[in-house]
Amino acid sequence: MPSLKDLKTKISSVSSTRKITSAMKMVAASKLRRSQEKAEAARPYSSRLEEMLSSLASSGITGEGVIKLLTGTGKDERYLIVPVTADRGLCGGFNSNINRETTKYVRSLENEGKNASLLTIGKKSRDFFNRIMKDKIIESYVDLGSKGAGYDTAMQISNKIQSLYFDGQFDVCVLIFNKFKSAIVQEVTQQQLIPLDIADKKTEDNEDATEEKKENSIYTYEPDEASIL
């Protein structure tokens, strides 16, 4: 049976461990709060930007002003899938849900006779797909969390995707990521990037309806829409 001294030593050790884990919990909560604030602050901007691009691309403009990134090649035989995961684990199904959804999507495309390639973002997606479909990985981006995924990193990834597209290596690009709902709930989301996935909002298929839509638009473009596209 442990002596009284042994029990006191054990209690002291447990108390010290509790203080350390409590401090770690507060640090983690602070980091989570900052990340959550950043995600929520960026959401209105991204939503409005997506709405504006959809408005531009669906405005019926034709000719040299319409770029292939918005309108696509007219085919859907070759897909570039971009799964976005974290570099670290121990976060429940945050990474595994994305990897599972990506695998399922790639298999479904192959069953339809289409070709799928991967551009992975995050160590967890890179390592996972290196094990099961290494031949499909075109490029991988990792260690983004340590230095912060800012504008420069986003432009690097964007330029790579555009380069692959204009080189004719894919027809459709789909992003798979976790959409933030709350600290414990993230929704796996697929978003088509190229060509831009535009919901047809026209209620009447005639010139009067088109003119009415243009008059009611909340956007004013300088220069005109064709020049921007």
Automatic annotation (TrEMBL):
CDD domains for this protein: F1-ATPase_gamma
Principal location: membrane
GO CC terms: proton-transporting ATP synthase complex
Database matches in InterPro entries: ATP_synth_F1_ATPase_gsu, ATP_synth_F1_gsu
Subcellular location: Membrane
GO molecular function, one term: proton-transporting ATP synthase activity, rotational mechanism
Disordered: region residues: 202-229
Membrane topology reported for the UniProt record: Peripheral membrane protein
Keywords noted in UniProt: ATP synthesis, CF(1), Hydrogen ion transport, Ion transport, Membrane, Transport
Family that this chain belongs to: Belongs to the ATPase gamma chain family.
Official protein name in the record: F0F1 ATP synthase subunit gamma
